[in-house]
Amino acid sequence: MILITGGAGFIGGNFVLDWLAQHNEPILNLDKLTYAGNLETLAAVQDDPRHIFVQGDIGDAQLVSRLLAEHQPRAILNFAAESHVDRSIHGPEDFIQTNIVGTFHLLECARAYYNGLQGQAKEAFRFLHVSTDEVYGTLAPDAPAFTEQHRYEPNSPYSASKAASDHLVRAYHHTYGLPVLTTNCSNNYGPYHFPEKLIPLMIVNALAGKPLPVYGDGMQVRDWLYVKDHCSAIRRVLEAGQLGETYNVGGWNEKPNIDIVHTICRLLDQLRPRADGRSYAEQITHVTDRPGHDRRYAIDAHKIERELGWKPVETFDTGIAKTVQWYLDHPQWVANVQSGAYREWVSKQYTQE
Ligand code: NAD
Ligand code: DAU
């Protein structure tokens, strides 16, 4: 049994589906179901006895301690977080509560649980913390990509809260010997991505005939990683990562935002042409830039490739084509997010612990 937190979110949800497709080992999924948690993503495993869902907060020490004692997981994988940079600018408090205070409580529970383990169970236990490249700050256009040695220079309330959580995880290893692993990855994209983030927002807005809001000049660079490649990296780090180490995960796909938006428009022009025959690119609108907007992120993923033999499978061309097709094939998932109907799944399908 492994315990994952945030498994109803974008990456956590993909991880649960992926894990159960590859393993027989059960998964205990602790998720608070904030606006970003969507149980419809997990519909395919709703009746799978290997998946146990619990609605709850990583900061609820009583609940977490009880779950650890009852289920005796061999690992905790911490995906749970407030993840959207724009929301952190407009209201940072939830980011501090979940990403810092929540991670602290989770670590405390993990430490007590780990101290009570014996023999092989203690030897095998892992706490894997999922983090971001944003902790490293912004890169000049010609600077080398972020390695694991790059200093932490977080610039948004979101990235500062993730940096704080990374430091806590590191300290629990150094001070208490908790067997931790940390991954810092670049921008993910793929199925079940909440349409507040760039790629799904552009697809959904384009199809709805709405403006495609590009912040500032659109020349900010992000480094894109297909979500299923991220899932395979996490599985590999869990399996073979060296205790106390951090691993950068990226897909070697640096692209300016404006290029991403044009690529999405081109794909939609082919796959779902506009009724008037014109290009979706006509919907692109430049809007005011994000305050403190980091100009460039780029991940150097040599360490995980060299030491753990992990490589991404998707190129950006294959990954973005699959992603656009997924959104075209799943209009109901999108519609339920937009109408808010996805929230009803909690009361309809699950009882609260
Ligand atoms: P997401 O916002 O889609 O999902 C977060 C999930 O965590 C949701 O299901 C939410 O309900 C749950 N959650 C929030 N607060 C919680 C709490 N206090 N207790 C329990 N559950 C809680 O996020 P995501 O994009 O899937 O990101 C997952 C992790 O990966 C985060 O830690 C994020 O910082 C990190 N990350 C994301 C990206 C990316 O591109 N999406 C890139 C790098 C790192
Ligand atoms: O780098 C990893 C990070 O990637 C993760 O840690 C975060 O959890 C995740 O949300 C993501 O952060 P970004 O801020 O990079 O993602 P977002 O999709 O919000 O924005 C991507 C880029 O696109 C960014 O430069 C801002 C820009 N953008 C975004 C939106 C939503 C726009 O130009 N227009 C938009 O409407």
UniProtKB/TrEMBL annotation:
Boundaries of every NAD(P)-binding domain copy: 3-323
Stored InterPro entries: dTDP_Gluc_deHydtase (IPR005888), NAD(P)-bd_dom (IPR016040), NAD(P)-bd_dom_sf (IPR036291), Sc_DH/Rdtase_CS (IPR020904)
Top-level lineage group: Bacteria
One Pfam family cited in the UniProt record for this chain: GDP_Man_Dehyd
The UniProt record lists the keyword Lyase: yes
Reaction(s) catalysed (UniProt annotation): dTDP-alpha-D-glucose = dTDP-4-dehydro-6-deoxy-alpha-D-glucose + H2O
Enzyme Commission no: 4.2.1.46
Keyword entries, A-Z: Lyase, NAD
UniProt keyword RNA-binding present: no
A GO term, aspect molecular function: dTDP-glucose 4,6-dehydratase activity
Cofactor: NAD(+)
GO biological process, one term: nucleotide-sugar metabolic process
NCBIfam families, sorted: dTDP_gluc_dehyt (TIGR01181)
Name of protein: dTDP-glucose 4,6-dehydratase
Protein's organism: Brachymonas denitrificans DSM 15123
